[in-house]
């Protein structure tokens, strides 16, 4: 009898065998009653190797994704439409192409774009599933991320506008002038959330998407190379009447978080992010 999975973890980058084994062991230890599968692209090992076969025997919920060659098409939807564009690409995918491949193959009720560095802690998955089962108008839910010292990592954010994006992705951000705007973006000016709270967008490093919402919204926009596909996806969901929620009671630990609250005042721009920010703004302004 085929298992009905509650959650499909869609890992967002090719992973090594040792790293994948660590993720599976940690997730299995704290999964609780939530039934889950893991979809992953091997990075440095053959999925038919003895070690990989042993891992599959230990974790039958693991599914290896195949490389996408030029003869393979992946359906990628634009906002509000389904299956309206065929995409073919080289073997090594961008982050969002890999996520879309995993989402297309996933079988769970809730689909989870996820970074292998993020480990759900005890009760996290059960709390997310229970919340989404009850809040049927919520398309996306995310756990509270913490670092190894237990400090909350900003994962619940406000949708960025032009002033914020200039602070984040140009030398203006390192001037120290944007502290208040950055704190507002990360909700850092608000008291800690004890239960759950709405969010304009949620980080796709740890995220659950309702299958019905995915069927309506389609996949991530693969035109984004590194960032802001999650902001774009949440913006599209809101435009169709869906809600996004951050669940503080569900906690996951991130080994190497992107930023801490101490980093909200000074931000050094990173190469490649400005192009994604520009794409996000154009789609937002043109209502695409």
In short:
The protein has 288 residues and is an alpha/beta fold.
What does this protein structure show overall?
The chain is of the alpha/beta class. Helices cover 32% and strands 20% of the residues. It contains 9 helices and 14 strands. The chain has helices at residues 17-30, 50-58, 95-105, 124-134, 162-169, 179-185, 211-217, 229-239, 273-285, and strands spanning 7-11, 36-40, 62-64, 74-75, 86-87, 110-114, 118-120, 138-146, 152-153, 156-157, 196-198, 201-202, 208-210, 243-254. Strands 1, 2, 3, 6, 7, 8, 9, 11, 13 and 14 form a 10-stranded mixed β-sheet that branches. A two-stranded antiparallel sheet has the order 4-5. Helix 5 packs antiparallel against helix 9 (273-285) and helix 8 (229-239) packs parallel to helix 9.
SSE layout and pairings?
Elements: E1 7-11, H1 17-30, E2 36-40, H2 50-58, E3 62-64, E4 74-75, E5 86-87, H3 95-105, E6 110-114, E7 118-120, H4 124-134, E8 138-146, E9 152-153, E10 156-157, H5 162-169, H6 179-185, E11 196-198, E12 201-202, E13 208-210, H7 211-217, H8 229-239, E14 243-254, H9 273-285
Parallel strand pairs: 1-2, 1-6, 2-3, 8-14
Antiparallel strand pairs: 4-5, 6-13, 7-14, 8-9, 8-13, 10-12, 11-14
Helix pairs in contact: 5-9, 8-9
Distinctive features:
288 residues; alpha/beta; 14 strands; 20% strand
The largest sheet, given as strand count, sense and whether it forms a barrel, is:
10 strands, mixed
Shape: globular
End-to-end distance, in Å? 42 Å
Number of beta-strand segments? 14
Helix/strand class = alpha/beta
Order of helices and strands: EHEHEEEHEEHEEEHHEEEHHEH
Share in helix: 25-40%
Provide the gyration radius in Å.
18 Å
Strand fraction: 15-25%
Mean pLDDT: 86
Total helical segments: 9
Contiguous uncertain segments of 5+ residues: 70-91
């Amino acid at each position: 009898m085929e298992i009905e999975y509650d959650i499909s973890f869609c890992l967002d980058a090719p992973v090594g065998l040792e790293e994948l084994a660590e993720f599976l062991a940690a997730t299995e230890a704290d999964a609780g009653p939530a039934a889950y599968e893991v979809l992953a692209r091997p990075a440095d090992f053959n999925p038919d190797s003895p070690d990989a076969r042993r891992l599959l025997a230990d974790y039958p919920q693991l599914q290896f994704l195949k490389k996408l060659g030029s003869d393979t098409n992946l359906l990628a939807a634009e906002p509000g439409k389904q299956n309206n564009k065929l995409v073919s690409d080289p073997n090594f995918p961008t982050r969002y192409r890999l996520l879309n491949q995993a989402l297309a193959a996933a079988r769970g009720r809730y689909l989870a774009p996820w970074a292998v560095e993020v480990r759900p802690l005890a009760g996290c998955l059960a709390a997310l599933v229970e919340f989404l089962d009850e809040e049927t108008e919520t398309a996306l839910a995310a756990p509270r991320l913490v670092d190894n010292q237990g400090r909350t990592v900003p994962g619940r954010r406000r949708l960025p506008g032009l002033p914020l994006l200039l602070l984040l992705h140009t030398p203006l951000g390192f001037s120290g002038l944007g502290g208040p705007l950055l704190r507002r973006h990360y909700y850092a000016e608000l008291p800690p959330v004890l239960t759950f709270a709405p969010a304009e967008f949620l980080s796709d490093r740890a995220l659950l998407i309702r299958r019905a919402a995915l069927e309506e919204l389609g996949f991530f926009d693969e035109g984004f190379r590194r960032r802001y596909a999650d902001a774009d996806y949440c913006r599209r969901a809101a435009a169709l009447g869906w809600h996004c929620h951050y669940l503080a009671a569900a906690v996951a630990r991130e080994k190497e978080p992107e930023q801490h609250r101490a980093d909200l005042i000074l931000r050094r721009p990173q190469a490649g992010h400005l192009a994604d920010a520009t794409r996000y703004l154009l789609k937002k302004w043109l209502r695409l």
